[in-house]
């Protein structure tokens, strides 16, 4: 009995860990040619050729560092790939550009004012590039000799012979250096660097020529080539830090630990001013480059009128990042007012934004997307099943059908088949309701539910970017 | 692809090769000078921390190429110090000139320029402060 239990435990721990598949995990870039022409299907994006081309121009502008303080609005119906394009922009920007992805509702928190949260997001999206320069001595240790005096009082003396492929030399060591050599356990055959300014010794690894010195060696031993060239080298490293990181350090009462605890609290304006001044000074002296990144605010209609006013102002300052916003709203009330405005954004901000529109996918596009999603979710589908899925997507929604893939995959595995067929699809369609059927059902049984308002009732929930929003209400109008 | 004439192509190749040769030559002079610098440093520390034998001697032998010259310790120390200063200077000058050359070769080769290549370095105190930000 007991043995059996153990067996089960082992089995449980041996379970294969499957990585999760996100909704946009298949997107690797915008899928443009060098001339910024969109390829129909590339990098996980399908269709939306005009929107992608426009996004490509924005990426090019930011990469060249020519523009700052612009705003871009991605507008379109739910499920037309706004977030997908934003993700693709972030991917396209690559490592060297700071990018912050956030949802507008994130800025509402009891601990922080909305203005502070927005400022932090903006400053997180602006990087500065700086350079560090150090003189180091880098070489392979040929010999270390440390002479200990017979009496305890006398000073230790030591010599260190270092070599590169080109030269070899002997260093006399002082007391401190001897100590750190003992501490670091430096022996002949190690490759080390010594920082000239601080005298810090770092062990890089062991020389390849010494790889066969011992039969048994720790697995962590790293073998590297003997360094080439001169012994005393100049090393330059460029770093990128965001303005927000520097703010946090200098916000004294918190200390730099605040960076890791995640709760940075509010940062005083004086500190930001000081940092702006310092950065401007560095820029003047050629010590720093400012790298404006991108700030992506999803569901931007969730921002209130104060936030929009603040954004307006923030975009005008120098060193502002490119702000990319996305919304699926038509002409609606701006939050915090009773004014109607396109996209739920005030006109003055709309005026300075470049608007990219995403259009509903064509039938062929939808089929493509479903195919890509199937590949991403590691589900093989028969041609007919894929057609059935595409057909379903027309009457329901793309997002609903994308969910069905996973269900169908499980059903398919249950009957020990390798390919999903139409039967799996229709069974999963019957198992899980889409929003239209759900709504019909609710209306049919309306008298049995509590607080029912009817189909064209006022109870139109302001939900997020989910397909359910467009269903009951009036059709979206995109300006 | 646009058409490139053989002549234009040759010009590009010649330019790149010339720049490459210069860079290699500079690298080797840096290595040679560093070798001399290290030998000088060894000699200097031998004078400053003399062995028992050397303590008795007033004069030392200096070797330049095939030539041995007998000088006083003090004089040799002064010569070597001056030499070190000159070498440090020359090496730094070569290194500073190396950068624009590499950048030029990269553009000739059509490689993207290295980001932050021409930045001035931060001072040690500034770097320490920034390092905190990077954790």
TrEMBL record, chain A:
GO MF, one annotated term: ATP hydrolysis activity
Subcellular location: Nucleus
UniProt GO BP: DNA repair; positive regulation of macromolecule biosynthetic process
Family to which this protein belongs: Belongs to the RuvB family.
Gene Ontology CC entries for this record: nucleus
Protein name, as recorded: RuvB-like helicase
Species the sequence originates in: Ramazzottius varieornatus (Water bear)
EC number in record: 3.6.4.12
Gene of this entry: RvY_03433-1
UniProtKB/TrEMBL annotation, chain B:
Alphabetical keyword list: Chaperone, Cytoplasm
Highest taxon above the source species: Eukaryota
Example GO BP: protein folding
Compartment(s) where it occurs, according to its Swiss-Prot or TrEMBL record: Cytoplasm
Gene that encodes the chain: RvY_15422-1
Chaperone among keywords: yes
Similarity comment text for this entry: Belongs to the prefoldin subunit beta family.
GO cellular component terms given for this protein: cytoplasm; prefoldin complex
Protein name per the record: p53 and DNA damage-regulated protein 1
């Amino acid at each position: 009995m007991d043995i059996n239990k153990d067996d089960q435990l082992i089995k449980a721990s041996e379970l294969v860990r499957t990585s999760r598949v996100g909704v946009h995990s298949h997107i690797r870039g915008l899928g443009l040619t060098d001339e910024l022409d969109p390829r129909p299907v590339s990098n996980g994006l399908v269709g939306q050729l005009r929107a992608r081309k426009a996004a490509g121009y924005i990426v090019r502008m930011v990469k060249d560092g020519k523009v700052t303080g612009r705003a871009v609005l991605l507008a379109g119906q739910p499920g037309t790939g706004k977030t997908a394009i934003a993700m693709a922009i972030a991917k396209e920007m690559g490592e060297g550009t700071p990018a912050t992805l956030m949802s507008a509702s994130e800025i509402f928190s009891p601990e922080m004012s909305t203005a502070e949260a927005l400022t932090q997001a903006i400053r997180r999206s602006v990087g500065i590039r700086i350079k560090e320069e150090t003189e180091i001595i880098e070489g392979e240790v040929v010999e270390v000799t440390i002479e200990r005096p017979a009496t305890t009082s006398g000073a230790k003396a030591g010599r260190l012979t270092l070599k590169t492929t080109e030269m070899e030399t002997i260093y006399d060591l002082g007391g401190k250096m001897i100590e750190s050599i003992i501490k670091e356990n430096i022996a002949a055959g190690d490759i080390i660097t010594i920082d000239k300014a601080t005298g810090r010794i770092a062990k890089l690894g062991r020389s390849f020529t010494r790889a066969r010195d011992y039969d048994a060696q720790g697995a962590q031993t790293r073998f590297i080539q003997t360094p080439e060239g001169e012994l005393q080298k100049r090393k330059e490293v460029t770093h990128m830090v965001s303005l927000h990181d520097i703010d946090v350090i200098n916000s004294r009462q918190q200390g730099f630990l605040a960076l890791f605890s995640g709760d940075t609290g509010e940062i005083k304006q004086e500190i930001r001013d000081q940092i702006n001044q310092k950065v401007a000074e560095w820029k003047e002296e050629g010590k720093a480059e400012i790298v404006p990144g991108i700030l992506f605010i999803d569901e931007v209609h969730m921002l209130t009128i104060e936030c929009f006013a603040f954004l307006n102002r923030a975009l005008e300052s120098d060193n502002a990042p490119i702000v990319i916003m996305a919304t699926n709203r038509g002409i609606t009330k701006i939050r915090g007012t009773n004014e109607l405005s396109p996209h739920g954004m005030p006109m003055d901000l709309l005026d300075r934004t470049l608007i990219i529109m995403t259009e509903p996918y064509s039938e062929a596009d939808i089929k493509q997307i479903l195919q890509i999603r199937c590949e991403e979710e590691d589900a093989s589908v028969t041609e007919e099943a894929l057609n059935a899925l595409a057909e379903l997507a027309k009457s329901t929604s793309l997002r609903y059908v994308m969910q069905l893939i996973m269900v169908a995959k499980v059903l398919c595995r249950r009957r020990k088949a390798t390919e999903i067929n139409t039967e799996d699809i229709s069974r999963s369609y019957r198992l899980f309701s889409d929003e239209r059927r759900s709504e019909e059902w609710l209306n049919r049984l309306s008298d049995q539910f509590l607080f029912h308002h009817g189909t064209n009732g006022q109870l139109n929930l302001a939900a997020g970017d989910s397909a359910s929003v467009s269903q009951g209400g009036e059709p979206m109008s995109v300006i | 692809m646009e058409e490139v004439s053989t002549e234009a192509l040759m010009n590009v190749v010649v330019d790149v090769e010339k720049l490459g040769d210069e860079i290699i030559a500079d690298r080797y002079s840096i290595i040679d000078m560093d070798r001399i610098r290290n030998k000088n440093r060894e000699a200097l520390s031998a004078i400053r921390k003399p062995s028992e034998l050397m303590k008795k001697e007033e004069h030392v032998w200096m070797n330049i190429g095939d030539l041995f010259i007998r000088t006083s310790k003090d004089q040799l120390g002064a010569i070597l110090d001056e030499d070190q200063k000159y070498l440090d200077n020359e090496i730094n000058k070569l290194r500073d000139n190396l950068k624009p050359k590499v950048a030029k070769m990269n553009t000739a080769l059509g490689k993207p320029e290295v980001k932050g290549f021409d930045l001035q370095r931060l001072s040690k105190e500034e770097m320490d402060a920034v390092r905190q930000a990077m954790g």
